[in-house]
Amino acid sequence: MSRPERAAPDEHPSGALEQIIAQRVREFRLAKGVSMTELARRTGMSKAMLSKIENAQTSCSLSTLSRLAETLDVPVTALFRGVDAEREAVFTPAGRGSQIVRRGSDVGHLYQLLGALHGEHKRIEPLLVTLTEASEVFPLFQHPGTEFLYVLEGVMVYGHGRARYEMRPGDSLVFDGEGPHGPVELLELPIRFLTVTANGHLD
């Protein structure tokens, strides 16, 4: 039987590393539905030691991290996820969204992209859509993913499949992008609405 893990000489939290490890250990333990008492039994560590780790009150040795990772069935590197990582962010000042060409641009729909991340994080696409006197109805958009629409200005009838929704400022709609959708009637111009399309899984 393994002896309980003894605390390292330096039991003062030393910063971000301990905080990240504490968060990851707690996150994986809870995800597996394992109590701290049960994790202590499985690892041969003391509950007091695990409490110190989950509260970022001690620095873990590599052997301790390896034992935790093996018991939680995750790579050791998973316990460091988020340490010193550069996280991408895109800021778009008011009125500075990039104008892009999309299906519907040729019938007067103005699209402004409000920002997008790259690679695996490119999961959502926020657009500001403006319809004016020059715009025509164009109700046959179809695309993968889920779309959220929020009306900022004007009044329109928006179609999705066979359904029709009269939408005014403050109204919103969430729908499956695979269904044919788009403005059916432009009742009060100008019309501005925000759409956010989620591509694939967000978990």
Describe the protein.
By secondary structure, the chain is an alpha+beta fold. 21% of the residues lie in helices and 29% in strands. The protein has helices spanning 16-31, 36-43, 47-54, 62-72, and strands at 98-100, 109-113, 124-131, 146-160, 163-167, 172-176, 181-198. Strands 1, 2, 3, 4, 5, 6 and 7 form a seven-stranded antiparallel beta sheet that branches. The chain is elongated, with a radius of gyration of 26 Å. 18% of the residues are buried. Mean pLDDT is 83; it is low at 1-13. InterPro entries: Cro/C1-type_HTH, Cupin_2, Lambda_DNA-bd_dom_sf, RmlC-like_jellyroll, RmlC_Cupin_sf, TransReg_Diox_bact_type. Pfam families: Cupin_2, HTH_3. Residues 25-79 form the HTH cro/C1-type domain.
Provide a quick synopsis of the model.
It comes from Amycolatopsis cynarae. The protein is of the alpha+beta class.
Strand content bin: 25-35%
What is the 3D shape?
elongated
Q: Which residues form runs of ≥5 with pLDDT under 50? A: 1-13
Helical proportion, percent range: 10-25%
N-C termini distance: 39 Å
Indicate the structural class. Answer: alpha+beta
Q: Order of helices and strands, N to C?
A: HHHHEEEEEEE
Could you tell me the mean pLDDT?
83
Counting DSSP E segments of at least 2 residues, the number of strands comes to 7
Put simply, the count of helices is: 4
Please give the radius of gyration in angstroms: 26 Å
Biggest sheet statistics:
7 strands, antiparallel
